[in-house]
Design a protein that fits this description.
The protein folds into 3 domains: 98 residues, Alpha-Beta Plaits, CATH 3.30.70; 116 residues, Beta Barrel (Elongation Factor Tu (Ef-tu), domain 3), CATH 2.40.30.10; 150 residues, Nucleotide-binding domain of ferredoxin-NADP reductase (FNR) module (Rossmann fold, 3-Layer(aba) Sandwich), CATH 3.40.50.80. The longest helix has 14 residues. It is of the alpha+beta class and 408 residues long.
Length: 408
Amino acid sequence: MYYLSAASGSASSNRLFRYEVIGLGNVGSGSQEATPVRTSGSVFFTVPYNRMSQFMQRITRLGGKIVSIQSLSIESAGEVSHSQTPVQPSVVLDESEPKESDKGAPVKSKKESKAHGDVPLNIYRPNKPFIGKCISNEELVGEGGEGTVRHLTFDISSGNLKYIEGQSIGIIPQGSDKNGKPHKLRLYSIASTRHGDLVDDKTVSLCVRQLVYKDPKTDQTVYGVCSTYLTQLQSGDDVKITGPVGKEMLLPEDPEATIIMMATGTGIAPFRAYLWRMFKENNSDYSFKGLAWLFFGVAYTPNILYREELEDLQREFPNHFRVTYAISREQTNSQGGKMYIQHRIAEHADELWQLLQKPNTHTYICGLKGMEGGIDEGMSTAAAKFDVNWSEYQRQLKRQERWHVETY
Protein backbone atom coordinates (compact mmCIF):
# COMPACT_ATOMS: atom_id res chain seq x y z
CA MET A 1 0.00 0.00 0.00
CA TYR A 2 1.03 3.57 -0.61
CA TYR A 3 -0.61 6.95 -0.16
CA LEU A 4 -0.08 10.07 -2.20
CA SER A 5 1.58 12.98 -0.45
CA ALA A 6 -0.28 15.57 -2.51
CA ALA A 7 -2.58 15.84 -5.50
CA SER A 8 -4.20 18.76 -7.23
CA GLY A 9 -5.59 19.88 -10.53
CA SER A 10 -7.37 22.54 -12.53
CA ALA A 11 -9.23 22.73 -15.77
CA SER A 12 -6.61 25.26 -16.87
CA SER A 13 -4.10 23.94 -19.40
CA ASN A 14 -1.41 25.96 -17.57
CA ARG A 15 -1.42 23.61 -14.59
CA LEU A 16 1.28 20.93 -14.48
CA PHE A 17 1.85 18.03 -12.11
CA ARG A 18 5.00 16.27 -11.00
CA TYR A 19 4.61 12.49 -10.67
CA GLU A 20 7.11 10.34 -8.81
CA VAL A 21 6.97 6.79 -10.18
CA ILE A 22 8.81 3.65 -9.12
CA GLY A 23 9.00 0.20 -10.68
CA LEU A 24 9.72 1.29 -14.27
CA GLY A 25 13.46 0.63 -14.26
CA ASN A 26 15.22 2.84 -16.83
CA VAL A 27 12.00 3.97 -18.43
CA GLY A 28 11.46 7.45 -19.74
CA SER A 29 9.18 9.04 -22.27
CA GLY A 30 9.57 10.55 -25.67
CA SER A 31 6.26 12.33 -25.23
CA GLN A 32 6.10 16.08 -25.01
CA GLU A 33 3.34 15.73 -22.46
CA ALA A 34 5.42 13.77 -19.91
CA THR A 35 8.96 14.90 -19.20
CA PRO A 36 10.95 12.31 -17.18
CA VAL A 37 13.70 12.91 -14.63
CA ARG A 38 15.36 10.02 -12.78
CA THR A 39 16.66 10.23 -9.20
CA SER A 40 17.61 7.38 -6.80
CA GLY A 41 15.39 4.70 -8.30
CA SER A 42 12.42 7.00 -8.92
CA VAL A 43 11.34 8.48 -12.23
CA PHE A 44 9.74 11.94 -12.20
CA PHE A 45 7.31 13.02 -14.93
CA THR A 46 5.85 16.46 -15.53
CA VAL A 47 2.30 16.04 -16.85
CA PRO A 48 -0.38 18.63 -17.79
CA TYR A 49 -3.81 18.42 -16.20
CA ASN A 50 -5.62 17.19 -19.30
CA ARG A 51 -3.25 14.21 -19.63
CA MET A 52 -3.37 13.02 -16.00
CA SER A 53 -5.91 10.22 -16.38
CA GLN A 54 -4.32 8.75 -19.49
CA PHE A 55 -0.84 9.00 -17.97
CA MET A 56 -1.86 7.15 -14.77
CA GLN A 57 -3.41 4.33 -16.78
CA ARG A 58 -0.23 3.95 -18.82
CA ILE A 59 1.99 3.81 -15.75
CA THR A 60 -0.21 1.04 -14.35
CA ARG A 61 -0.06 -0.97 -17.57
CA LEU A 62 3.75 -0.68 -17.57
CA GLY A 63 3.94 -2.08 -14.04
CA GLY A 64 4.90 1.16 -12.29
CA LYS A 65 3.57 2.62 -9.05
CA ILE A 66 2.82 6.29 -8.46
CA VAL A 67 4.38 7.36 -5.17
CA SER A 68 3.31 11.01 -5.14
CA ILE A 69 1.73 13.78 -7.19
CA GLN A 70 2.56 17.45 -6.69
CA SER A 71 1.06 20.53 -8.30
CA LEU A 72 3.55 22.75 -10.15
CA SER A 73 3.45 26.15 -11.74
CA ILE A 74 4.94 26.48 -15.22
CA GLU A 75 8.02 28.14 -13.72
CA SER A 76 8.63 25.53 -11.03
CA ALA A 77 8.06 22.75 -13.56
CA GLY A 78 10.88 24.18 -15.64
CA GLU A 79 13.17 24.25 -12.60
CA VAL A 80 12.43 20.60 -11.82
CA SER A 81 12.98 19.34 -15.34
CA HIS A 82 16.30 21.17 -15.78
CA SER A 83 17.79 20.75 -12.31
CA GLN A 84 18.17 17.00 -12.64
CA THR A 85 19.50 14.77 -15.40
CA PRO A 86 16.89 13.56 -17.89
CA VAL A 87 16.79 9.84 -18.66
CA GLN A 88 17.39 8.52 -22.15
CA PRO A 89 13.96 7.03 -22.97
CA SER A 90 13.82 3.27 -23.46
CA VAL A 91 10.02 3.07 -23.66
CA VAL A 92 7.85 5.65 -25.42
CA LEU A 93 4.67 5.97 -23.38
CA ASP A 94 2.71 8.13 -25.76
CA GLU A 95 3.15 6.62 -29.21
CA SER A 96 2.76 2.99 -28.14
CA GLU A 97 -0.47 3.53 -26.19
CA PRO A 98 -4.07 4.15 -27.32
CA LYS A 99 -4.93 7.75 -28.21
CA GLU A 100 -7.75 9.68 -26.68
CA SER A 101 -10.90 10.09 -28.73
CA ASP A 102 -12.21 13.50 -29.75
CA LYS A 103 -14.45 13.45 -26.68
CA GLY A 104 -11.51 12.91 -24.35
CA ALA A 105 -12.41 9.34 -23.34
CA PRO A 106 -9.44 6.97 -23.59
CA VAL A 107 -9.74 4.25 -26.22
CA LYS A 108 -9.58 0.86 -24.52
CA SER A 109 -6.97 -1.66 -25.52
CA LYS A 110 -8.09 -5.09 -26.67
CA LYS A 111 -7.03 -6.54 -23.34
CA GLU A 112 -9.12 -4.00 -21.40
CA SER A 113 -12.15 -4.45 -23.64
CA LYS A 114 -12.15 -8.20 -23.03
CA ALA A 115 -11.50 -7.96 -19.28
CA HIS A 116 -15.11 -8.91 -18.48
CA GLY A 117 -15.87 -10.71 -21.72
CA ASP A 118 -16.50 -14.04 -19.99
CA VAL A 119 -19.09 -12.70 -17.53
CA PRO A 120 -22.12 -15.03 -17.41
CA LEU A 121 -25.32 -13.28 -18.50
CA ASN A 122 -28.97 -14.37 -18.80
CA ILE A 123 -28.34 -18.09 -18.52
CA TYR A 124 -31.95 -18.39 -17.37
CA ARG A 125 -34.69 -16.14 -18.75
CA PRO A 126 -38.19 -15.26 -17.48
CA ASN A 127 -39.92 -17.61 -19.92
CA LYS A 128 -37.78 -20.52 -18.69
CA PRO A 129 -36.47 -19.78 -15.19
CA PHE A 130 -34.29 -22.03 -13.11
CA ILE A 131 -36.08 -23.72 -10.20
CA GLY A 132 -33.88 -23.52 -7.13
CA LYS A 133 -34.61 -24.55 -3.56
CA CYS A 134 -34.45 -22.46 -0.42
CA ILE A 135 -32.06 -24.09 2.04
CA SER A 136 -31.91 -21.32 4.66
CA ASN A 137 -33.71 -18.10 5.61
CA GLU A 138 -32.08 -16.17 8.47
CA GLU A 139 -33.03 -12.88 10.13
CA LEU A 140 -30.28 -10.25 9.99
CA VAL A 141 -31.85 -7.48 12.08
CA GLY A 142 -30.98 -7.70 15.77
CA GLU A 143 -33.32 -7.22 18.70
CA GLY A 144 -34.56 -3.64 18.88
CA GLY A 145 -33.88 -3.01 15.19
CA GLU A 146 -36.25 -1.73 12.55
CA GLY A 147 -38.05 -3.98 10.06
CA THR A 148 -37.03 -7.41 8.85
CA VAL A 149 -34.10 -8.29 6.60
CA ARG A 150 -33.37 -11.90 5.68
CA HIS A 151 -30.29 -13.67 4.38
CA LEU A 152 -31.58 -16.32 1.98
CA THR A 153 -29.53 -19.13 0.46
CA PHE A 154 -30.73 -21.19 -2.50
CA ASP A 155 -29.49 -24.54 -3.76
CA ILE A 156 -28.62 -24.21 -7.47
CA SER A 157 -26.78 -27.53 -7.86
CA SER A 158 -29.35 -29.02 -10.23
CA GLY A 159 -28.80 -26.40 -12.92
CA ASN A 160 -26.16 -24.35 -14.69
CA LEU A 161 -26.58 -21.01 -12.93
CA LYS A 162 -23.14 -19.37 -12.80
CA TYR A 163 -22.46 -15.84 -11.57
CA ILE A 164 -19.70 -13.60 -10.25
CA GLU A 165 -19.50 -10.98 -7.51
CA GLY A 166 -21.42 -7.77 -8.24
CA GLN A 167 -24.13 -9.37 -10.38
CA SER A 168 -27.86 -9.74 -9.70
CA ILE A 169 -30.46 -12.45 -10.17
CA GLY A 170 -34.17 -12.13 -10.86
CA ILE A 171 -36.84 -13.69 -8.66
CA ILE A 172 -40.35 -14.46 -9.94
CA PRO A 173 -42.73 -14.64 -6.96
CA GLN A 174 -45.48 -17.23 -6.83
CA GLY A 175 -49.04 -16.26 -7.68
CA SER A 176 -50.67 -13.71 -9.96
CA ASP A 177 -51.13 -9.95 -10.00
CA LYS A 178 -54.48 -8.13 -9.79
CA ASN A 179 -55.02 -8.75 -13.49
CA GLY A 180 -54.53 -12.49 -13.16
CA LYS A 181 -51.14 -12.50 -14.85
CA PRO A 182 -47.98 -14.03 -13.38
CA HIS A 183 -45.96 -11.62 -11.29
CA LYS A 184 -43.05 -9.91 -13.01
CA LEU A 185 -39.54 -10.64 -11.81
CA ARG A 186 -37.66 -8.42 -9.37
CA LEU A 187 -33.90 -8.07 -9.40
CA TYR A 188 -31.78 -8.54 -6.27
CA SER A 189 -28.04 -8.05 -5.82
CA ILE A 190 -26.24 -11.30 -5.04
CA ALA A 191 -24.76 -11.40 -1.53
CA SER A 192 -22.43 -14.38 -2.03
CA THR A 193 -19.29 -15.06 -4.05
CA ARG A 194 -19.27 -17.19 -7.18
CA HIS A 195 -18.47 -20.16 -4.93
CA GLY A 196 -21.46 -19.61 -2.65
CA ASP A 197 -21.68 -19.46 1.15
CA LEU A 198 -20.74 -23.14 1.39
CA VAL A 199 -17.79 -22.61 -1.00
CA ASP A 200 -18.92 -25.54 -3.12
CA ASP A 201 -20.26 -23.71 -6.21
CA LYS A 202 -23.76 -24.97 -5.42
CA THR A 203 -25.54 -22.03 -3.79
CA VAL A 204 -26.46 -18.37 -4.28
CA SER A 205 -27.51 -15.96 -1.53
CA LEU A 206 -29.56 -12.78 -1.29
CA CYS A 207 -30.06 -10.05 1.31
CA VAL A 208 -33.74 -8.99 1.24
CA ARG A 209 -35.65 -6.40 3.26
CA GLN A 210 -39.41 -6.85 3.45
CA LEU A 211 -40.99 -3.77 1.92
CA VAL A 212 -43.74 -2.36 4.16
CA TYR A 213 -45.38 1.05 3.75
CA LYS A 214 -48.61 2.97 4.23
CA ASP A 215 -50.76 3.66 1.19
CA PRO A 216 -51.14 7.48 1.22
CA LYS A 217 -54.67 7.25 -0.21
CA THR A 218 -56.16 4.51 2.00
CA ASP A 219 -53.74 4.63 4.95
CA GLN A 220 -53.63 0.85 4.76
CA THR A 221 -50.41 -1.10 5.28
CA VAL A 222 -49.00 -2.45 2.02
CA TYR A 223 -46.51 -5.31 1.82
CA GLY A 224 -44.13 -5.70 -1.09
CA VAL A 225 -45.08 -8.66 -3.26
CA CYS A 226 -41.68 -10.20 -3.96
CA SER A 227 -39.92 -9.15 -0.77
CA THR A 228 -42.72 -10.61 1.37
CA TYR A 229 -42.67 -13.80 -0.69
CA LEU A 230 -38.93 -14.18 -0.20
CA THR A 231 -38.76 -13.31 3.49
CA GLN A 232 -41.44 -15.93 4.21
CA LEU A 233 -39.82 -18.80 2.28
CA GLN A 234 -39.27 -22.02 4.17
CA SER A 235 -36.44 -24.51 3.80
CA GLY A 236 -37.25 -26.81 0.87
CA ASP A 237 -39.49 -24.30 -0.96
CA ASP A 238 -38.98 -23.91 -4.70
CA VAL A 239 -38.05 -20.51 -6.12
CA LYS A 240 -37.95 -19.29 -9.73
CA ILE A 241 -34.62 -17.66 -10.58
CA THR A 242 -33.50 -15.79 -13.71
CA GLY A 243 -30.19 -14.27 -14.77
CA PRO A 244 -27.58 -13.49 -13.79
CA VAL A 245 -27.40 -9.90 -15.05
CA GLY A 246 -25.15 -6.90 -14.62
CA LYS A 247 -21.62 -5.70 -15.34
CA GLU A 248 -21.65 -2.32 -13.60
CA MET A 249 -20.58 -3.55 -10.14
CA LEU A 250 -17.88 -6.08 -11.02
CA LEU A 251 -14.65 -6.13 -9.04
CA PRO A 252 -11.37 -5.35 -10.82
CA GLU A 253 -9.01 -8.29 -11.24
CA ASP A 254 -6.15 -6.35 -9.62
CA PRO A 255 -5.59 -7.90 -6.15
CA GLU A 256 -3.76 -4.75 -4.98
CA ALA A 257 -6.60 -2.37 -5.87
CA THR A 258 -8.20 0.04 -3.41
CA ILE A 259 -11.93 -0.71 -3.15
CA ILE A 260 -14.13 2.01 -1.62
CA MET A 261 -17.67 0.83 -0.88
CA MET A 262 -20.61 3.03 0.15
CA ALA A 263 -23.85 1.32 1.15
CA THR A 264 -27.16 1.91 2.88
CA GLY A 265 -29.34 -0.93 4.14
CA THR A 266 -29.49 -3.95 1.85
CA GLY A 267 -27.08 -2.17 -0.48
CA ILE A 268 -24.51 -4.10 1.56
CA ALA A 269 -25.32 -7.24 -0.48
CA PRO A 270 -22.71 -6.97 -3.27
CA PHE A 271 -20.11 -5.73 -0.80
CA ARG A 272 -20.55 -8.82 1.36
CA ALA A 273 -19.75 -10.83 -1.76
CA TYR A 274 -16.63 -8.71 -2.39
CA LEU A 275 -15.41 -9.11 1.19
CA TRP A 276 -15.92 -12.86 1.23
CA ARG A 277 -13.92 -13.15 -1.99
CA MET A 278 -11.19 -10.86 -0.66
CA PHE A 279 -10.81 -12.28 2.84
CA LYS A 280 -12.78 -15.45 3.57
CA GLU A 281 -11.94 -17.63 0.58
CA ASN A 282 -8.56 -19.09 -0.29
CA ASN A 283 -8.61 -18.54 -4.05
CA SER A 284 -5.64 -19.63 -6.13
CA ASP A 285 -6.51 -17.04 -8.79
CA TYR A 286 -7.15 -14.08 -6.48
CA SER A 287 -5.33 -13.12 -3.28
CA PHE A 288 -6.36 -9.63 -2.15
CA LYS A 289 -3.54 -7.43 -0.83
CA GLY A 290 -5.03 -3.97 -1.29
CA LEU A 291 -7.33 -1.82 0.84
CA ALA A 292 -11.11 -2.30 1.17
CA TRP A 293 -12.99 0.51 2.96
CA LEU A 294 -16.71 0.17 3.65
CA PHE A 295 -18.99 3.10 4.57
CA PHE A 296 -22.29 1.69 5.83
CA GLY A 297 -25.39 3.69 6.70
CA VAL A 298 -28.22 2.26 8.84
CA ALA A 299 -30.90 3.57 11.21
CA TYR A 300 -29.97 1.69 14.40
CA THR A 301 -27.07 -0.45 15.61
CA PRO A 302 -29.19 -3.66 15.40
CA ASN A 303 -29.70 -2.83 11.71
CA ILE A 304 -26.00 -3.23 10.90
CA LEU A 305 -26.39 -6.20 8.59
CA TYR A 306 -23.65 -8.85 8.82
CA ARG A 307 -22.15 -6.89 11.70
CA GLU A 308 -20.33 -9.85 13.24
CA GLU A 309 -18.78 -10.79 9.90
CA LEU A 310 -17.67 -7.22 9.23
CA GLU A 311 -16.07 -6.67 12.61
CA ASP A 312 -14.36 -10.08 12.55
CA LEU A 313 -12.78 -9.14 9.23
CA GLN A 314 -11.69 -5.76 10.58
CA ARG A 315 -9.96 -7.40 13.54
CA GLU A 316 -8.32 -10.08 11.40
CA PHE A 317 -7.21 -7.81 8.53
CA PRO A 318 -6.66 -4.35 10.08
CA ASN A 319 -4.21 -3.28 7.36
CA HIS A 320 -6.51 -4.24 4.51
CA PHE A 321 -10.09 -3.61 5.69
CA ARG A 322 -11.79 -0.63 7.30
CA VAL A 323 -15.46 -0.14 8.13
CA THR A 324 -17.07 3.20 9.00
CA TYR A 325 -20.68 3.26 10.21
CA ALA A 326 -23.24 6.05 9.93
CA ILE A 327 -26.07 5.25 12.37
CA SER A 328 -28.67 7.92 11.73
CA ARG A 329 -30.92 7.50 14.79
CA GLU A 330 -28.08 7.14 17.29
CA GLN A 331 -25.21 9.32 16.08
CA THR A 332 -25.06 13.05 15.35
CA ASN A 333 -23.09 14.87 12.69
CA SER A 334 -20.91 17.95 13.21
CA GLN A 335 -23.98 20.22 12.93
CA GLY A 336 -25.87 18.27 15.57
CA GLY A 337 -28.24 16.58 13.12
CA LYS A 338 -28.66 12.91 12.25
CA MET A 339 -25.58 11.09 11.03
CA TYR A 340 -26.04 9.89 7.45
CA ILE A 341 -23.51 8.28 5.18
CA GLN A 342 -22.84 11.57 3.36
CA HIS A 343 -21.62 13.07 6.65
CA ARG A 344 -19.10 10.25 7.05
CA ILE A 345 -17.97 10.82 3.47
CA ALA A 346 -17.50 14.53 4.23
CA GLU A 347 -15.47 13.70 7.36
CA HIS A 348 -13.08 11.51 5.35
CA ALA A 349 -13.30 13.40 2.05
CA ASP A 350 -9.66 14.53 2.04
CA GLU A 351 -8.36 10.99 2.52
CA LEU A 352 -10.82 9.62 -0.02
CA TRP A 353 -9.66 12.26 -2.50
CA GLN A 354 -6.06 11.15 -2.08
CA LEU A 355 -7.06 7.52 -2.60
CA LEU A 356 -8.95 8.42 -5.77
CA GLN A 357 -5.72 9.71 -7.32
CA LYS A 358 -4.42 6.15 -7.44
CA PRO A 359 -5.17 4.64 -10.86
CA ASN A 360 -6.29 1.33 -9.33
CA THR A 361 -8.85 2.80 -6.91
CA HIS A 362 -12.49 1.84 -7.58
CA THR A 363 -15.53 3.33 -5.83
CA TYR A 364 -18.84 1.45 -5.54
CA ILE A 365 -22.14 2.94 -4.37
CA CYS A 366 -25.16 0.74 -3.64
CA GLY A 367 -28.38 1.53 -1.81
CA LEU A 368 -30.85 4.40 -1.72
CA LYS A 369 -30.54 6.83 -4.60
CA GLY A 370 -30.72 9.80 -2.22
CA MET A 371 -27.22 9.04 -0.93
CA GLU A 372 -25.57 10.11 -4.20
CA GLY A 373 -26.13 13.85 -3.72
CA GLY A 374 -24.51 13.88 -0.29
CA ILE A 375 -21.52 11.90 -1.50
CA ASP A 376 -21.02 14.32 -4.37
CA GLU A 377 -21.26 17.26 -1.99
CA GLY A 378 -18.55 15.86 0.27
CA MET A 379 -16.24 15.03 -2.61
CA SER A 380 -16.83 18.42 -4.22
CA THR A 381 -15.53 20.11 -1.08
CA ALA A 382 -12.39 17.97 -1.09
CA ALA A 383 -11.76 18.45 -4.82
CA ALA A 384 -12.23 22.21 -4.55
CA LYS A 385 -9.21 22.39 -2.22
CA PHE A 386 -7.12 21.44 -5.24
CA ASP A 387 -9.01 23.64 -7.73
CA VAL A 388 -10.65 20.59 -9.31
CA ASN A 389 -14.25 20.51 -10.48
CA TRP A 390 -15.70 17.34 -8.94
CA SER A 391 -18.36 16.80 -11.62
CA GLU A 392 -15.74 16.84 -14.36
CA TYR A 393 -13.40 14.61 -12.37
CA GLN A 394 -16.20 12.16 -11.60
CA ARG A 395 -16.95 11.89 -15.33
CA GLN A 396 -13.31 10.94 -15.88
CA LEU A 397 -13.61 8.22 -13.24
CA LYS A 398 -16.72 6.87 -14.95
CA ARG A 399 -15.00 6.82 -18.34
CA GLN A 400 -12.16 4.89 -16.74
CA GLU A 401 -14.72 2.48 -15.24
CA ARG A 402 -13.59 3.35 -11.70
CA TRP A 403 -16.85 4.89 -10.38
CA HIS A 404 -19.65 2.33 -10.08
CA VAL A 405 -23.22 3.11 -9.00
CA GLU A 406 -26.25 0.90 -8.43
CA THR A 407 -28.97 2.78 -6.55
CA TYR A 408 -32.75 2.59 -6.35
